[in-house]
Write a structure and sequence with these properties.
alpha+beta; 4 strands; elongated
Amino acid sequence: MSHIIVRAPAGISSVPLTHDLRTCVPGGEGDIATTLRNGAALFDGDLFARPTEETYGRVRQILAALQNSQVEPMVFEGSRRVSSEFVENLIASWRESIAQFDTLSEFGHEP
């Protein structure tokens, strides 16, 4: 349901952005530079298939790197364009749900 695609507009050529993305996007700097130039996906996956902090961290790092470089992220949920805030809200909601389940478990309730 929450298949998210994050990309930059095609034609981006930024060494600092490429450098910032290398910790959260697979491949070397050359691959990342090509991905940016082509406007290909920097992240393409289902946020909730295997929800992990690592996945959420990657998405948030990608969004932050683009925004810090003053590049407007192109974010899609499936084929629908959404804002980066939408994705942030999805992640925050998931974290809130996990916290509620943890609280219930502490009191002996089965979620």
